Amino acid sequence: MEDIESTQNETEELKASVNAVEFIYSIAPKDLDQCLFADSLVTVSDSGRELGDFSVSVTKASYNEELCYLLHANSHGTIDDIPCGTSIIAYISRNLEILEENHHEFVKLEKQTVDRKVRIVKQDDQLVVNRIISEKEGVKTQTHTFPLSSLKGFVSEASNLMILRILARQKTVPENMTFQSFDADTVLSKSVYRALGCKKQMIGEELVDIFGIERTVSSAKDSSGTWHCYFLPDGHLASRVQLGSPAIMKLLHLPFLLDGGLMTLSLLEKDQIPVFEKKPLIWEEDMELYSKFLDRKEELKADYSSYVRQHPELKALLADFLQFLLLRKPQDVFSFAHDFFAPFASQSPPGKSHKDSQNFP
């Protein structure tokens, strides 16, 4: 295992543009609250074959008692018959600062799995980035720290998804819209946005207007990555593609409720409501359900880890308990645990004993 520690206190001139910084400051709470919905797209090949799925959801949350937003995005499927996936779980402040972001990517090759995990955490006046790469050669760990004073106008992958929704609802992208971002190697780079204009797209049986936004992230080592995203008027994602990729993500059906009354459930004819045949469910063999299971597993792990970090006394308390338990080696572990933790139960009714707690009504 290789462990690299580096500190970037003075970054090269990669400042965000004035327009980008002003745009961040102009975002109102109502703009963010209008981003609270879920997108679900299907990944298809050039020939139209389904390859996987892509989803993004934003909800209100709390992080260290601070009101914020929880973003969960995931993409799973096969590209050129190679299983791959990406998952992002992030807590974003009300001014689009990253409080914590966990980014997980994997590619399952024939003889090995390449796994990359990036964890970004805001700590005091700096951003700490931990990167773990697992390959055939072994595991490489990197840690970088960035002073927040050098990250004015920084946009992560998670906050980018929210910015795109806000820009799509406004149907405009300011000129010279350049932010700071991380490239695929977690190197500070430039992220440039520009409008692609409006066009029409067939979604289901409806021809609807969509607005496009291009995002290009420069890279110090590899070529730049460019994404084209098109949105419905209310900010729902209609399509997403990385230039050069053989796959495209598409929205197959209009959401039931859109701004402007494009489509509502009441407008559907009864004979248009699909009827699905009941089939036995084997969730382990269902790619979509299994990927959701893995995403939920990662989401719970991140949530539990966050709670443990917020309560460092928990580790100390459990360590003391295990130490006493192993020293005493009691026959009745349950009674021993009751006696050990009894002093902490300050709100227990007086006179209630351990034996009483075993007598259920």
TrEMBL record:
Keyword Ribosomal protein: no
First-listed, main subcellular location of the protein, grouped into a coarse class: membrane
InterPro entries, per database record: CATIP_N, DD_CATIP
GO annotation, biological process: actin filament polymerization; cilium organization
UniProt keyword terms in alphabetical order: Cell membrane, Cilium biogenesis/degradation, Cytoplasm, Cytoskeleton, Membrane, Nucleus
CDD domains: DD_CATIP (cd22973)
Ciliogenesis-associated TTC17-interacting protein N-terminal domain span: 19-246
GO cellular component term of the entry, any: nucleus
Protein's cellular compartments: Cell membrane; Cytoplasm, Cytoskeleton; Nucleus
A matching Pfam family: CATIP_N
Function: Plays a role in primary ciliogenesis by modulating actin polymerization.
Family under the similarity heading: Belongs to the CATIP family.
Record protein name field: Ciliogenesis-associated TTC17-interacting protein
Originating gene: catip
